[in-house]
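pinned: reference chain
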Amino acid sequence: MTIARITEVTSSSKKSFEDAVKNGVERASKTLKNVSGAWVKDQEVGVKNGKVTEYRVKLKITFVLED
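pinned: its structure tokens
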């Protein structure tokens, strides 16, 4: 039987939402073993002087627990 756990992380990028997702999954994979999926819970941007300065995502990361 496989048991998985889900944890939430926030990640950011100066480039794009896609890059923020990539950064979040890569960073989570350094700490969590057996990462098997992720989904975007929320997106937001940082704005300064009327311009987008940062893309942020809240991710739900799924990882399989070891026996």
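why pinned: The beta strands are 4-13, 35-48, 51-64. The helical segments are 17-31.
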